[in-house]
Amino acid sequence: MARRISVAQRRSDFINAAVEVIAAYGIDGATTRRIAEQAQANLAMLHYCYDSKEDLFADVYEFVAGKYRDVVKDSDPHSDLRDTARQLLRGVMECYLESASFTAATMELISWARRQHGDRGIAVYDQALETVRAVLRSAPSDHPVEPETIDQIAYVIATLADGFAMNWFTYGDRSAATEQMDIAVSVLDSWLAVRLGSTPVAP
Amino acid sequence: MARRISVAQRRSDFINAAVEVIAAYGIDGATTRRIAEQAQANLAMLHYCYDSKEDLFADVYEFVAGKYRDVVKDSDPHSDLRDTARQLLRGVMECYLESASFTAATMELISWARRQHGDRGIAVYDQALETVRAVLRSAPSDHPVEPETIDQIAYVIATLADGFAMNWFTYGDRSAATEQMDIAVSVLDSWLAVRLGSTPVAP
DNA sequence: CGGTGACTTAATCAAGCGTCCAACTGTGTG
DNA sequence: CACACAGTTGGACGCTTGATTAAGTCACCG
Fold first, then answer.
1. A11: pLDDT strictly greater than 70
2. Is residue A119 part of a domain?
3. Residue B161: closest CA among chain A residues belongs to which residue?
4. Is the pLDDT assigned to residue A117 strictly greater than 80?
5. How far, CA to CA in Å, does B107 sit from each of A136, B20, B201?
6. What is the pLDDT of residues B140-165, one digit of tens each?
7. Coarse DSSP helix, strand, coil percentages of chain A, rounded to the nearest 5 percent
8. In total, how many domains does chain B have?
9. Which single residue has its CA nearest the C1' atom of nucleotide D28?
10. pLDDT band (50, 70, 90) for residue B121
11. Integer Cα distance of B163 and B161 in angstroms
């Protein structure tokens, strides 16, 4: 007989299972039955741990948002602005590359959230973007950087990361994605050189 | 009694209606009832024009793929490589900006296609990318451009366009998107300057 | 005026959904 | 050891909603 598991641990299992199922079947295809099966738990177990499916999904949201927060805050606070930007982009892309399911599930969640025109869904995207701005602002710089510049850099990082994710989760080609990571970073770098007025880096 | 319409015209109505409904409710939410309602037609009418829902969706795919083809082929064939790339990126982004529904529906279709791991879905993305490559190849250039370089430029255009689309369809902020178009073009431009400028033929 | 193509009504059939209950089992505690 | 309770289960409820179609009605063209 299988060991008994605490509710807290079960909840965590359900969240991870939900990410997998959402990635594989989409939001609408993420049924309680499939999630329970993926979590190797009984269907009734899900309602023992969560009052409703919606409650579980709220936790899934928090999980995804938290992962972004961790990745973004992981950047070295002593680097200069340009290097911080590079690290942020690379960090997010590596996070995507690490788990295709996470990438796909995030995409599904964001597009689902947009459909419901609820704030909560956009919140994931919005919070992540705001955290990126905050980290960029805190990067030491020789001259003061205008807020508008920060916004633009954050936008470019997000754009490159999203575009990367799109390609990676569409083709699922890991080796191609690895090369594309380098391209994305070089693109950011070229633009920052022009935008911030430093000397461009020779390849 | 309403005017009578040819089957061909009806089909076109259904395709457009399907795009709207997919954008608003997602693929799984795009039911025959909703599509028929959006097309201001009877539910049975749909099955009078199409044998099945799947047949309609096949046409929707062809419609989306065709729109990409048109936009991409619309670029001026006399521009040099760098300008061609700029035009391609701008063209795709303008196409997105023109119709939020088209943008959203495309996203939905691509992520749905990935889930079904059928080739047909990826085909939309793939065909568009290949057409971009073809146009880039046909751009007149002083020195011969390596195939790898073409691939990379096409990838960067796709990445910037996808990232732009992601942000635009998430926030739906048209004025922000217009500014972001310029940023995206400037990013491409900076990178191209480095990428093409620093690879002389015979050093 | 008939027939063909456009159109509608209403029903069929079935699948699958979230949720819940009542019973059962293991485990730690007194 | 016995008891209480957290963890676990199979099964069923009721309900929504899906795609599809049979059969009938209407309008237009020759």
1. yes
2. yes
3. A163
4. no
5. 29, 13, 40
6. 888 889 999 999 999 999 999 999 99
7. 80, 0, 20
8. 2
9. B4
10. low
11. 5
CATH (domain of A24)? 1.10.10.60
How far does B15 lie from chain A, in Å, by closest CA?
Answer: 20
Distances (CA, A) of B63 to A151, B49, B57: 36, 16, 10
Q: Which of A111, A156, A163 is facing B162, going by the closest CB pair?
A: A163
User: Nearest residue of A to residue B155 by CA position?
Assistant: A180
Higher pLDDT, B171 or B121: B171
Q: Which amino acid is at A64?
A: V
Cβ A36 to strand C below 7 Å = no
- CA A175, CA B177: separation in Å to the nearest integer? 32
Mean pLDDT of A75-99: 94
CA distances from A1 to A39, A77, A138 (A): 17, 49, 53
Residue B133 sits in the same domain as residue B166: yes
Q: Do B164 and A169 touch (CB under 8 A)?
A: no
Structural domain span for residue A191: 56-196
> In the predicted model, what is the mean pLDDT of residues A20-49?
96
| Spatial separation of the C-alpha atoms in residues B94 and B81, rounded to whole Å | 20
Give the CA dihedral B152, B153, B159, B165, nearest 10 degrees. Answer: -160
Name the closest residue on chain B to residue A152, using Cα atoms: B183
Residues A85 and A99 grouped into a single domain: yes
**Six-digit token string for A122:** 């956009």
Mutate to test the interface with B, among A82, A162, A181 (most CBs of B within 10 A): A162
Locus of tokens 């939020």: B100
pLDDT band at residue B203 under the 50/70/90 scheme: very low
A168 in the same domain as A92: yes
Q: Do the Cβ atoms of A167 and B183 come within 8 Å? A: no
Query: Is pTM, for the whole model, over 0.85?
Result: yes
